[in-house]
Specification:
Oligomer: single chain
Shape: globular
CATH superfamily of the largest domain: Topoisomerase I, domain 2
Strand order of the largest sheet: 2-3-4-1-9-10-11
Strand content: 15-25%
CATH architecture of the largest domain: Orthogonal Bundle
Distance between the termini: 89 Å
Number of domains: 5
Helix content: 25-40%
Number of helices: 19
Mean pLDDT: 92
Largest sheet: 7 strands, mixed
C-alpha cells in the first residue's frame, strides 16, 4: 500500500477522486491500495531564537549575531496563542506519522506542489518521522484525473529531488538568519518606543528601494517646455489630413521662435506636394501565454480593487479545482512534450465559440519551447471546464482561457501608411510627416474584442498637390515618469531591473530576480502591512517611514538589486545542482555577521518612533438615525448599532471631502452630531482656490445612506 501526502486537503480530494476512493476517515482517505492524506501547507516551522537559547527571550544587542549550529524544527505555532503549537497542525502531523508507521504501508509518495517550497513541505514532514521506507515524488502541473493517474505510474525517487530540497532549505534558513538578526538589531538600534519591529529582509528592502527611486525621480523631475508645429492639408476631392513639422528627425523644439519663423513662411506659401508615400503591411502577434507575474500585472492593471496577492489566491483556487495549470510559474511557453495534450484542451474549450472556424492548432516555437520553460510551463486552462465560478474566479479563468485561445487565432495584420508633405516653392529645412494605420485582419484581437487605434489617411498619391489650410504651434511640457503600480513593480522584480520587451523574454537571466513568482505578491502586501509603502489609485508610494529606512539604514547591499538578484540566482543554481547548499549559506552567514557589526557600530539615530495607537471606540456623539452612540473606529466614525442594521458612518478618508483636500476629523464629527452643521475652513476648489463652507451630513431620500450638502452663509 502507498501513502500519498498532498499539500492541501483539496488536492488530496482530487487524488482520491482520480483513484475512485470514496472512503474518508479522520485525516485521510483509504481505498484501492492507497492512503491519501494531507498537510495544511507547512505543518512544521523553524525554531524561534529563544527555543535554542533562553537568553534570546529578550532582545539585547550583545546577543547578536545569532546563528544556530544546527537548525531545528517544531510543530507550526498558532498566531493567536503565541508560543504554543497549533492544535490542528499537531493533530494532522500525528495522523500522517501514524500512517507512515503502518505495517501495510510499503512506500511514501510526496504529492506537494512541484517547486522548492512544496518539496520543503513534504520533506519536512516525511523525514521528521525517521521511518525507513522508500520515498517517491509525484510531479504534476495540474490535478486533473488523467494527469494524476499518469503521474502515479511515473513516480520519481525523492532522492532525485535532493537539489530542490536543498534550495528550499537554503531559502528558509537564509531568510530566518537575515530576518531574525537584522530585524532585531535594527529595531533595537533605530526604533524608539516598544511595539511593532522594524522589518528587515532579503526581498522586502530591494523592493522598497525600487519604489523609493521612482518616487525620488518624480519629485526631482523638472518639467521642460517644448513646442510642435501642426498643419492641416487638403487634397483635391478628399478628406483633409494632419501632419507634424519635422526637422532633422526632430518634432519637438525647445524654442518657440524657431517654429514661429517657419509659420511666417507658411503664411506666404499655401501649396504643398506629397513627396513620399510608404505603405507597409505589418503583423501583430498575440501576447505570450501568462506566467504568474504577467497575469498579476494584467489583472491589477485592468480591474479596480485587485492586488497581486489576490490574483495569486484566486489562481491557486482554480488550480486546486483542476481548472487551470500550476500558477506559480515564471514561464511564458509550454514544454514541447505537451503538444498533443494542448491540442485536446483547445478542442474542449472552444466548441461553442462564434469564431471557432478561425481557431487552428499549430505547433509553434512561440508556444512550445523547452528553452523558455523553467520548472513549470505557462499557465493554461485544463480540459476540465467549470460549470460554476465566483465572480473573481471567472475573471481569472477568462483571462487565462482567452490568452490561451489567442495563440491559435490568426495573426492580426494592419496596413501602415507614412506620408511626407513638402511645401512648394520654398526651401524649408524640414518636412511635414503623417502616419496612419488601418486594421486589415482582426485575428486574435477578436477574442477579447480589442479595439485598435486607427488613424486613417486619405488615399493620396506621390506628387499629388495639396493645400495648406491651417497651421498652429502647440505648447507642451515634458512629463515625469509614472509612479509604480503593482504591474510595473512586478516586472522590475521579475527581471531585477533589467528591462526587456515581452518578445525578448527568453533573454532574461534565469533565476536572476527579486523573489519568486510565488513570493512577490506577498512581498508587496508585506511592504504595505508594515507601513513602508502606501497604495492610492493603483499607484505605489513610499511612506515617510519607508523613505527614512532607505536613506538611513546602513546595509546598502540589501537595497541593491544586483546583490539580491545574485542570491536568488544562487538558489536557482542550487536547484540545478550547480551550487552547493553549504556554499550559499556560508555567504549568507558571513554577510549577516558583518551587517550586524555594521549596525552596532553605526551612529545612534531614530528611523522609527513607534507610538501605540490610541484605543478606539471613543464615544463621539449620538447617532442621528437611531439615537445610539457614535464611536470612533480605525476607518471612520460609525454607529455602535451597526449590527442591527444602522448604516450611519462618516468615513475618515471621505471621497467627497478628499476632492477638496480635506479629511474628516473627530472635532468636525462632534460638532456635526451636536449642531447638525459644521463650519469647515480651508477647502480647496478644482482650480486650487481656498474657500470656507458650512457642511451638513444628511440622509438621501432614495436610499439609507448619507451624503454631504454644502452651504454658503453671509
Amino acid at each position: 500500500m502507498k501513502l500519498v501526502i498532498a499539500e492541501k486537503p483539496s488536492v488530496a480530494k482530487n487524488i482520491a477522486d482520480a483513484l475512485k476512493i470514496t472512503q474518508k476517515k479522520d485525516g485521510y482517505f483509504e481505498g484501492n491500495d492507497y492512503l491519501i492524506t494531507w498537510a495544511f501547507g507547512h505543518l512544521v516551522q523553524l525554531f524561534d531564537a529563544k527555543d535554542y537559547d533562553a537568553k534570546m527571550t529578550s532582545w539585547k544587542l550583545e546577543n547578536f549575531p545569532f546563528i544556530p549550529d544546527k537548525f531545528q524544527y517544531k510543530v507550526k505555532g498558532n498566531p493567536r496563542t503565541k508560543g504554543r503549537p497549533d492544535p490542528g497542525a499537531k493533530k494532522q502531523l500525528d495522523i500522517i506519522q501514524s500512517l507512515m508507521r503502518r505495517n501495510d504501508v510499503n512506500a511514501i509518495v510526496s504529492a506537494c506542489d512541484y517547486d522548492r517550497e512544496g518539496q520543503l513541505i513534504g520533506d519536512s514532514i516525511i523525514y521528521r518521522s525517521k521511518v525507513n521506507k522508500p520515498v517517491y515524488r509525484l510531479l504534476l502541473n495540474e490535478w486533473t484525473a488523467t494527469e494524476v493517474l499518469q503521474g502515479l505510474n511515473q513516480l520519481k525517487s525523492n532522492r532525485e529531488l535532493r537539489p530542490l530540497q536543498d534550495a528550499g532549505v537554503s531559502r528558509q534558513w537564509a531568510d530566518w538568519v537575515i530576518g531574525i538578526n537584522l530585524t532585531s538589531v535594527a529595531t533595537l538600534k533605530y526604533q524608539k518606543g516598544k511595539g511593532k519591529a522594524l522589518n528587515i529582509g532579503r526581498v522586502i528592502l530591494p523592493t522598497l528601494k525600487i519604489i523609493y527611486d521612482r518616487d525620488k525621480e518624480i519629485k526631482q523631475f523638472v518639467p521642460e517646455d517644448y513646442y510642435k508645429l501642426e498643419a492641416t492639408f487638403q487634397p483635391k476631392d478628399k478628406e483633409s489630413y494632419q501632419a507634424t513639422y519635422i526637422e532633422k528627425n526632430k518634432e519637438k523644439f525647445s524654442q518657440k521662435a524657431k517654429l514661429e519663423e517657419v509659420q511666417q513662411i507658411l503664411d506666404q506659401h499655401k501649396n504643398a506636394i506629397v513627396t513620399d508615400k510608404q505603405v507597409q503591411r505589418k503583423k501583430e502577434y498575440p501576447p505570450f501565454l501568462f506566467n504568474l507575474s504577467n497575469l498579476q500585472g494584467y489583472i491589477t492593471n485592468k480591474y479596480k480593487g485587485w492586488t497581486s496577492d489576490k490574483v495569486l489566491k484566486v489562481a491557486q483556487s482554480l488550480y486546486e479545482k483542476k481548472f487551470i495549470t500550476y500558477p506559480r510559474t515564471a514561464s511564458v511557453a509550454l514544454e514541447e512534450s505537451l503538444v498533443g495534450k494542448t491540442a485536446k484542451v483547445l478542442e474542449a474549450i472552444t466548441k461553442n465559440l462564434p469564431y471557432k472556424d478561425e481557431i487552428k492548432f499549430v505547433k509553434s516555437k512561440r508556444i512550445f519551447n523547452n528553452a523558455k520553460v523553467e520548472s513549470h510551463s505557462a499557465i493554461t486552462p485544463t480540459y476540465v471546464q467549470p460549470k460554476r465560478l465566483s465572480a473573481d474566479e471567472q475573471i481569472i479563468y477568462n483571462a487565462v482561457k482567452n490568452r490561451f485561445i489567442m495563440q491559435f487565432m490568426p495573426v492580426a495584420e494592419y496596413e501602415e501608411t507614412k506620408l511626407t508633405t513638402t511645401i512648394s516653392d520654398v526651401n524649408l529645412p524640414g518636412i511635414f510627416f503623417s502616419k496612419g494605420r488601418i486594421q486589415l485582419i482582426e485575428g486574435w484581437k477578436k477574442v477579447e474584442k480589442i479595439q485598435s487605434k486607427e488613424n486613417q489617411l486619405p488615399n493620396v498619391q506621390l506628387q499629388d498637390q495639396v493645400a495648406l489650410t491651417e497651421h498652429k504651434v502647440t505648447s507642451h511640457k515634458t512629463k515625469p515618469p509614472k509612479y509604480h503600480t503593482e504591474k510595473t513593480l512586478l516586472k522590475v522584480m521579475e527581471t531585477c531591473g533589467r528591462g526587456y520587451k515581452e518578445e525578448d523574454a527568453d533573454e532574461v537571466l534565469t533565476g536572476f530576480s527579486i523573489g519568486t513568482p510565488a513570493t512577490r505578491a506577498e512581498t508587496i502586501k508585506k511592504l504595505k502591512d508594515v507601513g513602508y509603502i502606501s497604495i492610492e489609485n493603483k499607484q505605489l508610494h513610499c511612506t515617510e517611514l519607508g523613505n527614512r529606512l532607505v536613506e538611513t539604514f546602513p546595509i546598502h547591499d540589501l537595497f541593491d538589486l544586483e546583490f539580491t538578484g545574485k542570491l536568488e540566482k544562487s538558489l536557482a543554481d542550487i536547484e540545478k545542482n550547480k551550487v552547493s547548499k553549504n556554499e550559499f549559506l556560508q555567504v549568507v552567514f558571513q554577510f549577516t555577521n558583518q551587517a550586524v557589526q555594521t549596525i552596532k557600530t553605526d551612529k545612534d539615530t531614530v528611523i522609527h518612533h513607534y507610538q501605540a495607537k490610541p484605543k478606539m471606540n471613543q464615544v463621539i456623539g449620538k447617532c442621528p438615525e437611531c439615537g445610539h452612540r457614535v464611536i470612533e473606529g480605525n476607518k471612520g466614525f460609525g454607529c455602535s448599532n451597526w449590527k442591527n442594521g444602522c448604516k450611519f458612518v462618516v468615513w475618515k478618508n471621505d471621497k467627497f471631502l478628499k476632492t477638496m483636500q480635506k479629511k474628516v476629523t473627530k472635532t468636525m464629527v462632534k460638532t456635526l452630531l451636536k449642531d447638525q452643521v459644521v463650519y469647515v475652513k480651508g477647502l480647496t476648489s478644482k482650480k486650487g482656490n481656498k474657500f470656507n463652507a458650512y457642511l451638513r451630513y444628511q440622509k438621501n431620500q432614495q436610499n439609507d445612506y448619507y451624503s454631504w450638502n454644502m452651504e454658503f452663509k453671509k
